[in-house]
Amino acid sequence: MSVAWMTRRSVKSLLLCGFAVSFVSAVCWTEGATPRGQDAANRTVATPGIPSTGFAGLDSYRASRIGVFADDFGQLARYRAENKALATGAAAKDRVVFFGDSITDIWKLPTYFAGKTYVNRGIGGQTTPQMLVRFRQDVIDLGPKAVVILAGTNDIAGNTGPMRDEDIEADLATMTELAKSHGIAAIVASILPVHNYTPRSQDSFAQRPAKRILDINRWLKEYGAKNRVV
Fold first, then answer.
1. Tens of pLDDT along 118-177?
2. What letter would DSSP give residue 141?
3. CB 128 within 8 A of CB 155
4. Rounded distance, CA 14 to CA 156, Å?
5. What whole-number distance in Å separates Cα of residue 93 and Cα of residue 213?
6. Which CATH fold topology does 8-36+76-227 show?
7. Which residues, 6+ apart, have CB-to-CB distance to 209 below 8 Å?
């Protein structure tokens, strides 16, 4: 399906540009990964109240987020002031919200898409349950014509705990359907691949099995075709 005001070619170009930036970014910013590959025996970190994932870096990351998980799970505070500024400013024509995790968070939208009314609402490390919590505040209430959703890699890794594929898919479907119910075109990106070419990337690769990425991406393609979602 073509979004009325964006051709299929422009959507494809936009996402390909984002993919190129994101793939490089993912190498540089690996969430929950250890700096070096470790032997299995040394991969655990004892953290009271948090089950070990078997990866020291991910265990440390989850322990460092206890305050966030307990006090502001969706991290609504992150963009509250910026959202208020948008609400009180002049209405933007053809606004697009880019909604995701760190891969989106580090995009420099004013540089990549100069002159466009594109809004970045990415938050590093987030999973789809966290994104659902803030979907109204950071997407619906901004009144965009479209939202570009890129999420799921941190769910597979287990940043906020173990997630089944069907739970990730349900969250992505819910965000898409919420957008559509408010007249917002949903553009859902596939989960990006990962690699193990560097020592830093080895744990990230192990946390994100290729089969799970492929399975969810296959579901996304089928869901998009069935529900007329780009």
1. 999 999 999 999 999 999 999 999 999 999 999 999 999 999 999 999 999 999 999 999
2. G
3. yes
4. 25
5. 35
6. Rossmann fold (3.40.50)
7. 156
Which helix or strand (DSSP H or E) is residue 120 part of? strand 118-122
Going from N- to C-terminal start, the domains of the chain cover: 8-36+76-227
Q: Taking Cα atoms as reference points, which of 188, 185, 174, 194 lies closest to residue 221?
A: 188
Q: Tell me the whole-structure pTM to 2 decimals.
A: 0.79
**What 8-state DSSP symbol labels residue 49?**
T
Angle between helices 210-227 and 165-181 (to 10 degrees): 30
DSSP 17-46: HHHHHHHHHHHH--TT--SS---GGG----
Which of 106, 107, 104, 102 lies closest to 126, judged by CA?
102
Measured between alpha carbons, how far is 12 from 28 in angstroms, rounded to an integer? 24
